[in-house]
């Protein structure tokens, strides 16, 4: 861990089990998903070895999840070809 200011710590995602989720992040995910259907995105995440349904993608986009597995959200970003920072710009 590297302390970079009084309110934030830098820590590798491999050490974080879950991340806080909210409606704003859901909207960002929807924008990143673009024209890709929720079903196709879920299938891509599943092919990366992580169990995910289109219903869960919908729940995330609606902002109805309080938190999300770090592994799932990283896989979602990978499936979209997006950098994690596009979804969580304040993370870095």
Q: Which bin fits the share of residues in helices? A: 40-55%
The secondary-structure class comes to mainly alpha
Radius of gyration: 13 Å
Number of strands: 4
Q: For the terminal residues, how far apart are their CA atoms?
A: 13 Å
Arrangement of strands in the largest sheet: 1-2
Order of helices and strands: EEEHHHEHH
Q: What portion of residues belong to β-strands?
A: 5-15%
Shape estimate: globular
Q: What kind of sheet is the major sheet?
A: 2 strands, antiparallel
Number of helices: 5
Low-confidence stretches: none
Q: Mean of residue pLDDT?
A: 89
Q: How is this structure best described in words?
A:
This protein is mostly helical. The chain is built from 5 helices and 4 strands; from the N terminus they run βββαααβαα. The chain has helices at 23-33, 38-47, 54-61, 70-80, 84-87; strands spanning 2-3, 9-10, 18-20, 67-69. The chain has a two-stranded antiparallel ribbon with strand order 1-2. A two-stranded antiparallel sheet has the order 3-4. α2 (38-47) crosses α3 (54-61) and α2 (38-47) packs across α4 (70-80). The longest helix is centred in the first third of the chain and has 11 residues, at 23-33. The chain is globular and about 35 Å long. The protein starts with a strand and ends in a 5-residue tail after the last helix. The model has no long low-confidence stretch (mean pLDDT 89).
Summarize the structure.
It is built from 5 helices and 4 strands; from the N terminus they run βββαααβαα.
């Amino acid at each position: 861990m590297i302390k970079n200011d009084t309110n934030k710590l830098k820590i590798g995602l491999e050490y974080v089990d879950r991340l806080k989720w909210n409606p704003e992040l859901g909207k960002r995910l929807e924008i990143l998903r673009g024209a890709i259907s929720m079903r196709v995105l879920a299938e891509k995440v599943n092919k990366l070895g992580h169990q995910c349904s289109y219903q869960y993608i919908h729940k995330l986009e609606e902002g109805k999840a309080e938190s999300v597995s770090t592994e799932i959200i990283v896989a979602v970003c990978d499936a979209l070809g997006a950098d994690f920072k596009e979804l969580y710009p304040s993370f870095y």
